[in-house]
């Protein structure tokens, strides 16, 4: 009987090892949604973006000139990028619903908003 128990144990270990890759291939969580805002010709496109809470928004500077992304209004300073050279990217994940207005502080006439639902 000792051998049988040992074989059952070894069998269980082999099943566990064989099953491991299958378990590991299952996504850990549902994928985070993402969206992009392009900075081009000194404007944000789209200038108004509507997303669901939990969405990661990435700003991409398509201009040669440096820009940045600074949250203003209410709420304020929730996000603030550093200076973004051409082709630079900045990402922020919006967890809380609200309307987030922002500007490029280098060119304050560049304005946009992200509406989080
Ligand atoms: Cu700018």
Explain the layout of strands and helices:
Layout: H1 2-25, E1 34-40, E2 43-45, E3 48-51, E4 55-61, E5 70-72, E6 89-94, E7 98-103, E8 111-116
The structure holds copper (II) ion.
Copper (II) ion binds at residues 67, 104, 106-107, 110.
What distance separates the N and C termini?
A: 63 Å
User: With helices defined by DSSP (H or I, 4 residues minimum), what is the helix count?
Assistant: 1
| Chain-averaged pLDDT | 85
- The name CATH uses for the topology is Immunoglobulin-like
- Give, in order, the helices and strands: HEEEEEEEE
Give the radius of gyration. 24 Å
Tell me the fraction of residues in β-strands, as a range.
Answer: 35-45%
CATH homologous superfamily (4th level) name: Cupredoxins -  blue copper proteins
Record the strand order, biggest sheet. Answer: 2-1-4-6
The second-level CATH architecture is Sandwich
Textual characterization of the structure:
The protein is an alpha/beta fold and 117 residues long. It has a single domain, classed as Immunoglobulin-like (Sandwich). Helix content is 21%, strand content 36%. It is built from one helix and eight strands; from the N terminus they run αββββββββ. It has a four-stranded mixed sheet, with no helix packed on it. The longest helix has 24 residues. About 8% of the residues have low confidence. The structure holds copper (II) ion. Copper (II) ion binds next to loops.
């Amino acid at each position: 009987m000792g051998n049988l128990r040992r074989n059952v144990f070894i069998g269980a270990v082999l099943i566990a090892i064989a099953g491991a890759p299958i378990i590991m291939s299952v996504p850990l969580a549902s994928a985070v949604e993402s969206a992009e805002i392009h900075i081009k010709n000194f404007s944000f496109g789209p200038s108004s973006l509507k997303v669901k809470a939990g969405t990661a928004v990435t700003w991409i500077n398509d201009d040669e000139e440096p820009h940045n992304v600074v949250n203003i209004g209410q709420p304020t300073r929730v996000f603030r990028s550093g200076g973004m050279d051409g082709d630079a990217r900045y990402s922020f994940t919006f967890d809380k619903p609200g309307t987030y207005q922002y500007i490029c502080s280098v060119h304050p006439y560049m304005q946009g908003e992200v509406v989080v639902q």
